[in-house]
Amino acid sequence: MSSKAAQLCFKYFVAGIVVFLATATLSGCAYFSGGDGADGIFDLAEISKGIEKPAPVVEEEEKVPEDEVSETAIKTVPVRDIPSRVDGRNPYLKKIKGAQPPPEPSMEVAPGEGVLLNFDNADVYEVIQVIAEILDISYIIDPQVKGVVNIRSGKKIPMSQLYAVFKKLLNINGLDIRSEGDYNYIFSAKKPSSEMVQGPDQADSLKESPSIMIQIVPVMHIPVAEAVKLLKPYLSEQGEMFTLENPNTLFVSDYESKVLDVLTILARLDVSPLSSLRVRLVRIDKAPIFELKDELVEILSSLQVNSKGYDGVSVLALERVNSLLLVSSNQELLDSATRWVTELDVVPSEGRDNIYIYNVRNSVASDLASLVNELISSSPSVTTGSSAAKSSAKSSEEKDSSATPTAITKPAKSTAVRKTGASKKSGETGESLRFAGEPVIIADDSRNIILLRAHPADYVRLTKLLERLDNIPRQVLIEVMVAEVNLNDSWAMGIEWGMKETGRLKLDGTKYTNKYFSNLSQIANGESGSPINHDSLQSVAAGFTYSVLNSAGEAMGILNAIADDTELTILSSPQVMVLNNETATVNVGQQVPIVTSQTGDINSSNLNQTIQYKDTGVILDVTPKINYDGIIILDINQQVSSASTNTLSGTESPIISNRELKTKLAVRDGQTIFMGGLIENNVNLVDSGVPFLKDIPILGWFFKYQKEVKDKTELLVMITPYVIETEDVLAQYAANFEKKMIDLRKKLNQGKKQ
């Protein structure tokens, strides 16, 4: 047996030596396999190709402490979470953590010491006296304290628990005890006292108590009416809630313990929605930002992720920083949206001829293409929009061959933009932008798209430029009111003069003065207290005047004040929406036929007449131009015309009386332009005489006579422009208009019922 064991040990020893030598040989081969001229046994390059290396773990990289991340590194991170930094809790309810028992008086209790309490229908006053002597406390009893106590303890109650039992006996009888200095006040808790009305800053001092109290607390983040619906079931039968909606404040009247329960629930409900939102900024490097946003929204919609829901993802394109802002309350959805952005942020796949399509969203394709062409072309001249369009059309004819290799049939209403001069040297006059290739732009207005043939790198630059220019056009909502005022004797000099000098019109007890009107200083010769030139007064009063008021409310106040003192007729009150730099026309009236020419034979009574129809009534043309800082420049042309029978000549064409206001003004958003001063003199023949007899045919002339009646009317025009920059603002105006219509419908229905 020993010889076999020795042989076995020898075999193991030899095997160990072989393994050691083989390992050394492999190490030497591995070391020299990369050397010059060395032919190793193993090729490490081939071996490494077959090894599947795991992808880097993102989670481990994210565990780097924030202190060790340099500021430069943070700026280069394409995905960055932005903390909301919002403490959404109600500041008055932060310290409420639920029911807190009141502090009990500290007492030294001897071990094993206790008290037996046995009372049958005992008067509560006597029970208070006995237990107070045992606890050695001083007390004051309210005269309204009444009640009966029944208690039987089977064993001694420890002194450490006697005060709690005493307080429970009081609570059962609707009583409570409150420490006030060296004394304890025992009182009835069924009615609130003035001391038990607590303000918002005392909400954290609530405790378990049967005392009736009133707690006042502002509700910060939810409507107080909704809070009442949710909290009312938690009140007792005696509890009540009152609301003050203007400051969104809640009044709770109930037992103190119930008030504490209600405010504990309210502290969980009254939380700002911003505190739960997660915000992430994702930088876009390659893809067009607006196209990527649309694709991401479409993908999320197909995944049943609603952008407007609580658990949805809102996507906002930040053009200036070329990033997408992702907002969600769900971390998983936010991470999923971020992964989709990473997948989509690539240069669009190019075709065989590097042709791309840009979908115009808010502008006209030809206008965008012309503007971009003027920017990237080699022409040094500065052109306007109209000249840019002509230049674009001309370049289309000159460079039609440049678009031929794209193999795209040019539509009838397309505009081909010429190639850019990319080969020019830097620093030359009129130098164009430098591109990797020679971009070609074709605009198709029928489909409102722009075709681009460009190098992929140039495509990214051009697309970002188009996105910057393809903005939502700003609009202006224009409210117009045209009124005609009958000028009686007290208003003979016009509305402005009557309001300035007579002081007849007042609003809220304040007289209208020259601060509302632009040319009152002209009437007073530029100096207060100087003599008035009555000879020029009539011409000044009859001329065009205008005022700029802070709001439409002031203008309506003026009209209401005028209507109380004289006859005022609203001729038209339209509202019209118009694009920036476009003309809006409002025409309320009728077309009147006018004979412009007559032809015919002298010997014949048949005449051929040429008739032209002319618009009469209220005609308003307004062209708004919005500046960057919100100033609105208005080109206004207001006409009010009417037709009357022609008694001066033998033609059948009527006489058209026309009053026109034409001006250019600059106002801010929401300000009202009050224009007036155009006074018309009318002379009418009025029959006067004996009633009934003057109406008899032929014989009536013996009982009547005609006299001339002169009257004056002044035209007043109010225009209020509102800038509409976003869909939300437009929705607000639409909602306000709908509310007005609903209120009007209710008033009409009430009038029918009466």
What does this protein look like?
The chain contains 18 helices and 31 strands. With 754 residues, it is an alpha+beta fold. It has five domains: 47 residues, no CATH class; 199 residues, Phage tail protein beta-alpha-beta fold (3-Layer(bab) Sandwich), CATH 3.55.50.30; 68 residues, Ribosomal Protein S8, Chain: A, domain 1 (2-Layer Sandwich); 105 residues, no CATH class; 262 residues, no CATH class. A hairpin with a 5-residue loop joins strand 27 and strand 28. The N and C termini lie far apart (128 Å). About 23% of the residues have low confidence.
Sequence-ordered SSE layout with sheet pairings:
Layout: H1 2-32, H2 44-50, H3 58-62, H4 71-76, E1 79-82, E2 114-115, E3 118-123, H5 124-135, E4 139-141, E5 148-152, E6 157-158, H6 159-172, E7 175-180, E8 183-188, E9 197-198, E10 212-218, H7 224-231, E11 240-244, E12 249-255, H8 256-269, E13 278-283, H9 289-302, E14 313-318, E15 323-328, H10 331-344, E16 355-359, H11 365-376, H12 385-398, E17 414-417, E18 440-444, E19 449-453, H13 456-469, E20 475-487, H14 495-502, E21 506-507, E22 510-511, H15 520-523, H16 534-542, E23 545-549, H17 552-565, E24 568-572, E25 575-579, E26 584-600, E27 607-626, E28 632-644, E29 655-667, E30 672-689, E31 704-724, H18 727-753
Parallel strand pairs: 4-8, 9-10
Antiparallel strand pairs: 1-13, 2-6, 3-5, 7-8, 10-12, 11-12, 13-15, 14-15, 16-19, 17-18, 18-19, 20-24, 20-25, 20-31, 21-22, 23-30, 26-27, 27-28, 28-29, 30-31
Helix pairs in contact: 5-6, 9-10, 11-12
